Amino acid sequence: MLETFSLSWRVAVRHWLIFRKDLFANVSPTIIDPTLFLICLGLGLGAYVNQVEGLSYARYVAPGLAVSTALFTAFFECSYNFYVRLTFENIYKAILTTPIGPREILFGEFIWIVLKGMGMTSMVTLWLVVFGFCHWEYALLMPILGGLVSFACGALGLIASSLVKNINQFQTVYSLVISPMFFFSGIFFPIKDLFWPLRWLANLSPFYHGVSLGQHILWARELGVGLAIHGSALLALSFLLGAIAYRRVHPLLYK
Amino acid sequence: MGEKDAILISKELKKNYGKLVAVDGVSLEIQPGQCVGLLGPNGAGKSTFIGMVYGATPRSGGELSVFGLDPQTNSRDIKKRVGVVTQEDCLDEAMTVQENMSMFARFSGVPSHEIERRVRKLLEFMALDHKRDASIRALSGGMKRRLVFVRALLAQPELIILDEPTTGLDPAVRHLLWEKVLELKEAGTTILLTTHYMDEAERLCERLIIMDQGKIREDAPPRELIERHCPGYVAHFRNREVGNTLHHYLSEHPEGVVYEDSAGVGVRGPDLPWISAMVSKIETAPEVVRPANLEDVFLKITGRGLGSHA
After folding, report:
1. pLDDT tens, A178-204?
2. CB A131: neighbour CB atoms within 10 A?
3. Do B85 and B149 touch, CB atoms closer than 8 A?
4. Are strands B20-30 and B8-17 parallel, antiparallel or unpaired?
5. Which among A7, A21, A96 has the least Cβ separation from residue B56?
6. Which of A96, A107, A255 should be substituted to probe chain B, the one whose Cβ sees the most B Cβ atoms within 10 Å?
7. Which residue from A47, A65, A84, B212 has the highest number of Cβ atoms inside 10 Å of its Cβ?
8. pLDDT, tens digit (0-9, with 9 covering 90-100), for B210-225
9. Rg of the Cα trace of chain B?
10. What are chain B's domains?
């Protein structure tokens, strides 16, 4: 067990070393995109919007922006990046000649994606705290939330990797799954007044629960309720998606 | 040597991908210190067999034991003792030569304090030390191949698997790699090699296994294979029209065999006098006369060319 973890950790370290080589390119979207959203939506559109849930619009969107960083980081890492490592670069083929097996490779992916999600979410949260768009009291919970959302959305990316026939098809997955998840997550407007099937679907989305929990945390409202409902839903969905991803991707590495 | 000493024992090993049968009942044993060549046309099942040996591919049937362990349940312990040169280079393009090696050393479980020394030694061994800080993209095909080769030696393996190690390389690099393989062989390392080059197989291996369509067709030392399948000499003609004359000649001298290939038409006879008698009779000078070689054996066994009347 210890050896499994130690070998998985080395896979995660490999991804970090590659990530670090191009740190600025890899981190810049994480900082710049939420900043643009905050300026355009929070301040621009926000000027026309009175209050949402009793908050200025910038404060309303802030938690979701931090959580969405985890969604995009994780999905892209586990779709395009993973797929390229698997099919074009043959990285895993080489790794599999060493004592590392398919299980350690997958655990390594998960370790890496959780840590990456935690790091990216922390950076955006720090940004929000510095600009005063959120309550900082509970901000320390955000890296954990980011890690969990990243795990679930990374699992979605891995599942997509096991389904696509070529790299172009990720675009369809993005448009049909990731975009709707993003827009109907309550990040830009409360979804409680939406047509009921959409609300029902949102409940199946780990990202919706992540955003909702993030709002409880960064608005400092009813944290206990948020953790009980959205926290447990997020945990359950993460577990489910992680298990599906493992079962689907393992045969790609061991065939 | 008996089954007890063998480091690899395969019994009726099978692998299917859906309806496609890649490996179809392979039984063989490899003793420590042997250098075994695995030959066969593309798609014969060589790489699939190799994948099962180090546990990268699950088997569909039969038994397999490597170092007395089952690759299906204990590939980790097997892979600690096996070095693999994969058919594709599979190098990390974003990293330098040195970084690729150190990372692989960590994957292979080389103790941290050993990594730097071992990487330096291996890069020197393959004359790559001047490229240690070069990025992989800046390397020539031959350099990449050399790097993949020493990468497989990091864990000081007892068994080295070379899957087409010299395909696409220039003669100088091939000779360098051969030299290194022979050094390892001298040191007692067991080697399992696949190749499409018969000269490579003949030079390096004391035992050749010819596979075709997932099955073992032959398993013997190189000289024995030639003696058994294609003894004698070959006269080759560029002009295909000689074919008819040759067939006519052979109807009276059935010891010989005619074959056609992309370069023309040839005859194999039991010895040189037989060949010269034939040449003087048909009054056409062959382009070349040579001893039959492994390539002739290979083409005969895998169903193309010499002796198969194709």
Report:
1. 999 999 999 999 999 899 999 999 999
2. 13
3. yes
4. antiparallel
5. A96
6. A96
7. A65
8. 999 999 999 999 999 9
9. 23
10. 8-221 (3.40.50.300), 232-291 (3.30.70)
